[in-house]
Specification:
The complex is a heterodimer of chains A (273) and B (305). Chain A is built from eleven helices and ten strands. In chain B, 75% of the residues lie in helices and 0% in strands. In chain B, helix 3 crosses helix 10 and helix 6 packs across helix 8. Chain B is globular and about 85 Å long. Chain B starts with 14 loop residues before the first helix and ends with a helix. The chains are: A alpha/beta (273), B mainly alpha (305). The interface between A and B is medium-sized, with 28 and 22 residues.
């Protein structure tokens, strides 16, 4: 275990600095460069993501924020022709080191996708899928995990009477919360969210945001979002990306009120992007 | 915001321009109706041809259909001849072909879709498979003759026949299964992998169940083609006169289409009736297979909902 403190998040606003720097670094991204074939999508990214906080990645489409997010649980490995350089450490362990167990990594780093993707199975089977593939067969244990995870995802009250009906019959917002419950069921400590609310109506969106607020104390959450108000509402620190570069990373309050970089200011004030 | 670029799709158009863009819209109903007519005409003519074909065969052969026709061996006398050896031979062929071709074909499709990296080698393999699907079935018969009958000395047995037919339908099964696998949304794979499932677990628990109706449909179509094939079996040297039910993989055999072909090539019209009856049996068998495919598909789809 490494216990570096976040030196990046030095800000002028006293209280946020205190909060941000008192946290240990969970994910340390160092000199990460990523190529799709010969196209370079990420240029020398250095970023320390604090533990137990919500970090938002913002930036215009194609700026590399989703690519970086998907590097943290190595989902980019699935795409042919991707090469990645540099290192990403979680709790001080390089996840790109040879011999890293991808299954263990993805158990610890859960992911929620932009388009909610419940499996075409029952609600119960969706949440129990992760625990089952990791070897839990005991019915009572599974039931407990399912009810706990659904409760954590704030979905239990809505679905407890129809656990065995198809997950595809749920509404869009419920499906996305089910996907969060499914990710929580394997007991991760990092939760990656790739624009989790971009396809949802405002009410479902605010439910997801409330949920992120409730989960922040127990998980390190990294959220990619197009919606700057959302980033401002849910995150503790924010990283702004532009054309594959990390332009600025700081406490959310500071980044949105007193950005250090001109590009950040232009983006958050809506002058481009 | 005012759009200054007048070619912008959302820009306000002056009146003349509006009329210009609506003209093709007005022109559409006419072409729409003629296209609809054409489509209906094509469907109707295809169905009509099929109906005439099936109708004439059933009409010709119906008088010969009886239990004794199904339980007799071929004979020199048309009224005593039956298809016992032929339909049991076909059943054996079908059974063994499924056993050989199904796991291999679906496995190859899973490998190509789920595991293989898109490299030059996999593209070459894909090209070969697509081309193999177009190779005339006689060629497969020649291959079977040389490899299974002679080199491996399986003789003119059910085994040689079904291995040949398995080779014949393999490319079709691979292509149909890949098509079915490709329709599985990426989100299911990503969702499972992100939970720490292995590729195999993802394929087995998420991808295959979703793709199964498509795979089953493709495979059943392929197998109904296999039991209708005549040319490769004749090239292989399958016998036309067999007076025994195949009792093992190594037994000599005949099959329904071969029997029908044999009877048709005789001068006596009574044998032509027999051929029509044999074809009727084959056709009803194929219809039954396709019905099973439909039932399976709707059942799986209901379970997935």
């Amino acid at each position: 275990m490494q216990s570096t403190t976040v030196s990046d998040v030095q800000t002028t606003t006293g209280d946020t600095t205190a909060r941000a720097s008192s946290h240990e670094v969970k994910i340390e991204i160092r000199d990460v460069e990523l190529f799709y074939g010969s196209y370079q999508a990420l240029h020398g990214i250095n970023l320390a993501i604090p533990a137990g906080q919500v970090t938002a990645f913002i930036g215009p489409s194609g700026c590399g924020k989703s690519t970086l997010l998907r590097s943290i649980n190595r989902m980019n490995d699935l795409i042919d022709g991707v090469t990645i350089r540099g290192s990403i450490q979680i709790d001080g362990h390089d996840i790109y080191a040879p011999g890293v167990d991808l299954i263990e990594l993805r158990k610890r780093v859960g992911m929620v996708f932009q388009k909610s993707n419940p499996f075409p199975k029952s609600i119960f089977d969706n949440v129990a899928y992760g625990p089952r593939i990791h070897g839990i067969t005991n019915r009572e244990a599974l039931e407990e995990i399912v009810s706990k995870s659904l409760t954590r995802a704030d979905l239990w009250r809505e679905v407890r009477d129809r656990l065995y009906s198809s997950a595809l019959d749920l509404s869009g917002g419920q499906q996305q919360r089910l996907c969060i419950a499914r990710a929580l069921a394997v007991n991760p400590d990092v939760l990656l969210m790739d624009e989790p609310a971009s396809a949802l109506d405002p009410r479902s969106t605010s439910k997801i945001e409330d949920l992120i607020g409730e989960l922040r104390s127990d998980y390190t959450i990294v959220i990619v979002t197009h919606n700057m108000q959302q980033a401002a509402r849910v995150s503790d620190s924010t990283a702004f990306f532009y054309e594959g570069q990390l332009i600025e990373h700081g406490a959310t309050k500071q980044l949105f009120t007193k950005p250090r970089e001109k590009q950040t200011e232009d983006y958050i004030t809506g002058r481009f992007g | 915001m005012e759009l200054t670029d007048k070619h912008h799709p959302l820009a306000r158009r002056p009146f003349e321009q509006d009329r210009e863009t609506t003209r093709p819209l007005l022109a559409r109903p006419g072409s729409e109706a003629s296209f609809l007519f054409l489509a209906r005409f094509i469907i109707a003519s295809a169905l009509l041809v099929l109906l005439v074909l099936v109708g004439s065969v059933v009409y010709d052969g119906f008088s010969r259909l009886s239990l004794s026709f199904l339980t007799s061996f071929p004979s020199r006398k048309a009224e005593n001849a039956g298809i016992l050896a032929a339909w049991t031979g076909s059943a054996w062929l079908l059974f063994l072909t499924i056993i050989f071709a199904l796991p291999l074909g679906v496995g190859a499709a899973v490998y190509l879709e789920e595991y293989a990296k898109k490299s030059r080698a996999t593209r070459l393999i894909e090209l070969c498979i697509a081309n193999l699907a177009g190779v005339p079935s006689v060629i497969y018969g020649l291959l079977g003759l040389q490899v299974f009958v002679r080199a491996l000395s399986f003789e003119r047995s059910v085994l040689s026949g079904s291995l040949t037919l398995a080779l014949l339908v393999l490319p079709i099964i691979i292509m149909a299964s890949r098509e079915a696998l490709r329709t599985v949304p990426k989100g299911y794979r990503e969702g499972a992998l992100a939970l720490g499932a292995t590729r195999w677990q993802t394929t087995w628990t998420q991808v295959l169940p979703v793709a199964l109706p498509g795979i089953a449909t493709g495979c059943i179509l392929a197998f109904s083609r296999a039991i209708g094939e005549t040319a490769p079996l004749i090239t292989l040297g399958a016998l036309t006169y067999v007076a025994q039910v195949p009792d093992s993989m190594f037994a000599p055999f005949t099959a329904l289409p071969i029997q029908a072909f044999n009877w048709l090539s005789r001068p006596q019209p009574e044998f032509h009736v027999n051929a029509a009856a044999a074809i009727t049996v084959l056709l009803s068998f194929m219809i039954a297979l396709n019905l099973i495919a439909m039932v399976l598909r709707s059942k799986f789809q209901r379970r997935q909902r």
